Amino acid sequence: MNERRAVPRVEVPQPVPAKIKAALPARVLDVSSQGAQLEVTTCLRPTTSCDLRISLPDGEVTIRSIVRRCRAWGFGLDEKEQKVLLYRAGVEFQDLPPETLARISSHFLYQLPQPFPEAPVSDDVELEFLTEEDGAPHRAPTHTGPVKIKFDTAVFNRMMKGHEDE
Questions:
Q1: Alpha-carbon span 53 to 49, nearest angstrom
Q2: Torsions phi, psi of 105, nearest 5?
Q3: pLDDT tens by residue, 65-103
């Protein structure tokens, strides 16, 4: 397969917990100096801006990102043993500070990049139940700790004003 990326990406050797928009649990699957591929339980709309929070051994980093693609990938189990649809999302980092890139590089990008194939994209794909290498059901990213939701109060106030006019 012909590699289309501007920079090589590195597959993460073990699951790395992350959050999108401070509340949505995610798992980093691979990373490059310009973006990452994530596993999430909610479809993310392409061209949407978001904050990606990645948990590293030496603390959390927050990276402003833009969702470039998102598609259904397969089924897994959530923390309640319920079947959930999992998505793979590609995000592009925006204005990545040099110190954050250095931290990411020290944890992930020290490996020699190994290109790996991406699954073919098709509209008529039948999704399967994903399993781990040992045959156990694949687990969805889970919430850990308190959930924080940030929103712009100006947008909320405009929305509420619109309802008053009805």
A1: 13
A2: -60, -40
A3: 999 999 999 999 988 999 999 999 999 999 899 999 888
The reported pLDDT for the residue numbered 165 is: 53
- Specify the amino acid at residue 128: E
Q: Does CATH place domain 10-164 in 2.40.10.220?
A: yes
DSSP secondary structure letter of residue 97:
-
Contacts of residue 12, defined as CB under 8 A and 6 or more positions apart, other chains included, come to 28, 29, 30, 31, 108
The Cα–Cα gap between 83 and 116 comes to: 28
Q: How far is CA 32 from CA 15, 94, 102, in A?
A: 16, 13, 12
The whole-angstrom separation of Cα 127 and Cα 75 is 7
Helix (H) or strand (E) holding 157: helix 153-164
With beta carbons less than 8 A apart as the criterion, state whether 9 and 30 touch. yes
Task: Determine the pLDDT at residue 94.
Answer: 94
Task: State pTM to two decimals.
Answer: 0.67
Give the integer Cα–Cα distance in Å for 60 and 20.
Answer: 13
pLDDT level of residue 148 (50, 70, 90 thresholds): very low
